[in-house]
Design brief:
homodimer, 365 residues, alpha/beta, Isopropylmalate Dehydrogenase, 12 helices, 14 strands, binds 3-isopropylmalic acid
């Protein structure tokens, strides 16, 4: 039987509650479908800091590296606002991305039909929206050196962050975007600030070259990142796949996620390069939303983004396409039935908590 | 009589046409109100490159430095997409900002009541919207060194941009934001990525300290820039003044501008520090929109953003508060009468060109 080895990192805040719902699905798949998932669990973020004084331990990093896939909840919260920069909750997430070399972050921004009214945009602008943001995740200003604060004397300090991109980093993320576009509407829009940033100039050149030599069949457009933000707000349906750097991807994917009205529902996948021998990619799956400390522990968080992240895991890490489709369909069915957590509550719908939502999805699965 | 010395840089694309409408207003104020404006005019962007091979000449820079205020149209267009980086159209704009030390960029995002329907957001979310984005304009990744592309051999290049902020740069822009908040709803939201960037950590510290020591009466909130982008889309009216760095300000102010549905209407002011002797600030005023090459030369561009930028000039550079108020009222009146350029056309409105729009505003002034 295939061994399928998952490492769970629920993290902080609502991460615990939402991960519990994924565990139900894993247990069900093992019991009823012989899926053969094995799971182990670790600490990340504030919970790792509280237990061990770091944002993730080396031992847990080893487990993440050894797993077929990592499922990640969320990190952070006001409780850890004052911890030192090096061990702040986000450092755990950033180390996972970097050490697993998860350079490709896939962030679908889709608008669930049942939720079009929840968007702040006019419904006709977001109904049927289906964008995929492909964000570079291991380079740019997130990891470039120097990254320092220096005391200059006279009460003055100087902070420096460095945006660095090499050709190969841009080429591999562009290739991921073009490949994915071929399975969708075959259109890529690349976003940078080539009018201000040298990294934008190189980004633009390498994407153009990759397109010309390897993917001439895909439609390619370039947009300045600020104009891209505007166009996302003005007419999001013009986009299919958007490819952009780490920091612009952070901003633009959050804007895109909010447009859909489905923020509590959106999953993401972070993928590494295929292994030369086995063809397997390292991978981590996590909701786009954060740890929501204000509602943590109340049993009311929406587990759908976490469950949908597990569906992406089934699809991308285990090639369990039918199971992934079924799980996504189960989510859509539950929404169509008017079953809602508080964040997506609508008139006439049935309000449920985290566990009931998980159960309802499992019942449809 | 007061001498009021204006330097006009219409630039490229629709910059020419829209500046012509401001010239009418200047002529009128000189003739009818003895305003005593003197004007000179220069080249910037692609038009400067075509004439002189640079994005702005030293001679024009001298004039900009000597003027009481600079009025700037727009730069750029596909015609100059392939010119060398150092002399691309935007380099003229960036040199003006840097050499005039215009560190404070004020970008109001207001929703003209007559245009609430034009927003892609639901009207109730933007009706009455009045945000002021205060963007740092002479620091950060726009100007930090190194800023290079290096050939590494093996077909690999490395691009580097550097984000640098010193304490005093953050302090002075924060002070501008707090001062302006006091004239408005007394609330500032500071946005950065302190969870990822050292410059975000320092930004957060200095804004907090400036608030505590000099502006404790103002309400201060901190938000991560990605969450800020989300909140702008979700519920923009929660904000009064937003203060942020050069790059985040570029992205966030464009998103905010697009929210209003009034993109073709939004002005901006870029201000320097008050002169130690005279108290005068160097200043440049420009529309938020770009050069719109697709409609340039057709006489259909909306001149309102350029005229509203001149209103800001009257207010901030010449303390002509009554005249600024009147000019802004004239714009609102013309809109209320249903006079519209193509970009803001609505059913039942009267469609006019650039010159008629300018004339209509002048008639109400
Ligand atoms: C938590 C934070 C470090 C992270 C990021 O900035 O990448 C988050 O905003 C995200 O988008 O996954
Ligand atoms: C034209 C460009 C250099 C400029 C910028 O990035 O600052 C523009 O987008 C702006 O916001 O004024």
């Amino acid at each position: 039987m295939t061994q399928r080895n998952l490492f769970l990192l629920p993290g902080d805040g609502i991460g615990q509650e939402t991960m519990a719902e994924v565990r139900k699905i894993i247990d069900y798949m093992n019991a009823e479908q012989g899926a053969g998932f094995t799971t182990d669990e670790g600490l990340v973020g504030g919970s790792a800091y509280d237990a061990h004084g770091v944002a993730i331990t080396d031992a847990d990093m080893e487990k993440a590296l050894a797993a077929d896939a990592v499922l990640f909840g969320a990190v952070g919260g006001p409780k850890w606002d004052a911890v030192p920069y090096e061990v702040r909750p986000e450092a755990g997430l950033l180390r996972l991305r970097k050490d697993l070399e998860l350079f490709a972050n896939l962030r679908p921004a889709i608008c669930y039909p049942a939720l079009a009214e929840a968007s702040s945009l006019k419904p006709e602008l977001v109904e049927g929206l289906d964008i995929l943001i492909v964000r570079e995740l291991t380079g740019g200003v997130y990891f470039g050196e120097p990254k320092t604060i220096t005391d200059l004397g006279n009460g003055q300090k100087r902070a420096i962050d460095t945006q660095v991109y090499d050709t190969y980093e841009i080429e591999r993320i562009a290739s991921v975007a073009f490949e994915l576009a071929r399975t969708r509407k075959n259109a890529v829009c690349s976003m940078e600030k080539r009018n201000v940033m040298k990294s934008g100039v190189l980004w633009n050149q390498v994407v153009t070259e990759t397109h010309k030599t390897k993917y001439p069949d895909v439609k390619l457009e370039h947009m300045l990142a600020d104009a891209g933000g505007m166009q996302l707000v003005r007419a999001p349906k013009q986009f299919d796949v958007i490819v952009t750097d780490n920091l612009f991807g952070d901003m633009l994917s959050d804007v895109a996620a909010m447009l859909t009205g489905s923020l509590g529902m959106l999953p993401s996948a972070s993928l590494g390069a295929p292994d030369a021998k086995t063809g397997k990619r390292k991978a981590m799956y996590e909701p786009v939303h954060g740890s929501a400390p204000d509602i943590a522990g109340k049993g009311i968080a929406n587990p759908i983004a976490m469950i949908a992240s597990f569906a992406m895991c089934l699809r991308y890490s285990f090639n369990m396409v039918k199971e992934a489709d079924n799980l996504e369909k189960a989510i859509a069915n539950v929404l169509d039935k008017g079953i809602r957590t508080g964040d997506i509550m609508a008139e006439g719908a049935t309000r449920v908590g985290t566990a009931e939502m998980g159960d309802a999805i499992l019942a449809e699965f």
